Structure formats: structure tokens, C-alpha cells
Amino acid sequence: MTVGAALAHVRATCDRLSRVAIVLASVSLASLGVVVTYGVVMRYAFNAEPAWIEQAALLLAICVAMFGASVGVHGAGHIGLDSAVKLLPPRGQRVCAVLGHLLVIGFAVVLVHGSLEMIEATRGNDIPTLGFSEAWRYAPTLLSGVLVTLFSVERVLRPATPAAAAH
After folding, report:
1. What is the value of pTM for the model shown?
2. Is pLDDT at 125 greater than 80 in this prediction?
3. What letters, b where the CB count within 10 A reaches 16 and e where it falls short, cover 110-127?
């Protein structure tokens, strides 16, 4: 397998993973809307809000934010201040882009490490109103950190070939 073919395979894998992440974020967002609406109706119409609503909504909000952020990194849709960078020659712009992605990779590695520590620390604790381990609260953060790392590495490698630069 040539380097170009390997990079194309990595790019295609990242594209598929990004589509999965956007589906997860979308389903989580729709579920969040349903859960919150149910909670509001139960609270104000029947004065009987279920105890699990708040914790379920929090878990779903974490999923929306984390998977949505990873999709943003894949699509290079993260916030960037590039007014000064655009004044640089192409090589300077490339250096700034790589440095930006390396910073994102550093952040994502810290996110993965912290998530693993929190999963380990909370594995034996249950979320009382949901009945499953507190560690599940950190799973979306862990997965998002892995995706952000992979997507950022792919972004750094992407312009390495002419075909990739056109993509």
C-alpha cells in the first residue's frame, strides 16, 4: 500500500467516524429535547417530575457537546482567528495550521487521559436516579478525545499529498 493510498484510507475512515459522531450527537440532541419536554410537562402539568430527568438530560447534553465538537474538528469548523495568518505566505499559513492542530491534539490527549482517570475513579459509583455507573458520564468525553486526536492527526497529514490538499 502506498503512502497516498494509506492516507486516503485514513481520510475515508475519519469521514465515516465523523458521520457516526454526527448521528450520535443528533440522536442525543433529539433525545434531550424529548427528555426535557417530558420533564417540563410532568413537573408543571402533573407536579410529578421523575427524578431521573435531570441526570439523563445532563448525560445527553454531554453527548451533544462532545460528539458535536469532534465533528467540528473533523470539518475544520472550530473557531479560529486567522486574519493575521492569512497575511502570511503559504508556508507560514501551513506552519500555523500544523501548530494549531498540534495544540488541539495536545488538548485531546489531556482530555483522553483525564477521562480515563475519571472513569477509573467513578466506576464503582452509581448515578442514583439512573441506576448505572457514574463512569458512563465520562465515556462520551473519552470517545470524543480519541476522535479529536484522530481527526487532528488526519488534518495535519491531509495536505501532505496533492490529492489530499484538494479534498
Report:
1. 0.88
2. yes
3. ebbeebeebbeebeeeeb
